[in-house]
Amino acid sequence: MQPLRSAVASAVVMTACAIALAPTAAQADEGPAGKGDMSFSVIDAKSAIPRTGTFQLRDLARYGVEQKAVNRLAEGRTSGAADTAEKAAPAASAAPAAPAAPDPAYSIVGEWKDKDGWDTTMRQGKWPGGDYGFGLTKVDQKHNLSLAAVKATTKYPRPTGGKKQQGGTSYIYVTDVLHVKCSGWWIFRTCRVVDVKAVDAVVNFRTLRDNKPFGVVTAYCENTPGRCPDWVRQAINI
Q: What Cα–Cα distance (Å) separates residue 178 from each residue in 32, 41, 69, 109, 194?
């Protein structure tokens, strides 16, 4: 019986040690947080992010990127929150159609203030092809930009020359979206800009019968025929 008792005792001790040393399920699944290569796009709100050389991910906060966006990047999340929400529930942010505008193309799908506090609108719009059309339908289908991207362009244009009168009641806004690649760990990742796209948004402020401005005529990437790259509309801070 003595050998049997010794074997049982040894098995119990070995099992207890294994349990003590084994990681919990959460520990086993948990990799190094915020580690590895990543790429993302960001609106350069202050035109301050270095276009050459490198910078650390944490430096984005000094360059005008909201801290919550920097935190998302540090955790490895690279999609823009606004664009994701817009795709998930486009009707949630839509304003009611103007009662005096029977054409559904003139229904308002977004209202906000531009950088100077001016009332700005996005209408549903239409795009029959070519250079014709206006509003969200043209912006999305022809130029691959979102309501969130256009809104950010009017809120955060270039500090110098980013908003100027195009003629009459029309204004053009210009902002830069940067495509960035980083490697390393957490907020200490080393980053560099690999591409830049200037986004233009044209807004007409003449008042229509619903007492709202006509709003966004179009938005597009400069020197880019047709559609903007996907990374432009997915900027982390829109």
A: 27, 5, 15, 27, 8
Could you tell me which residues are beta bridge partners of residue 174?
Answer: 200
Gyration radius (Cα) of the chain, Å: 26
Query: What are 19-62's pLDDT values in tens digits?
Result: 333 333 333 333 345 678 999 999 998 999 999 999 999 999 99
* DSSP-based helix, strand, coil % in the chain, nearest 5: 30, 30, 40
Measure Cα distances from 131 to 66, 98, 123, 171 in Å: 35, 25, 17, 18
Whole-model pTM: value is 0.77
Q: Is 109 left (phi over 0), alpha (psi -120 to 50) or beta?
A: alpha
Max mean pLDDT among 32-36, 73-77, 226-230 falls in 226-230
Mean pLDDT of 185-208: 97
> Side chain identity at 126, as an amino acid letter?
K
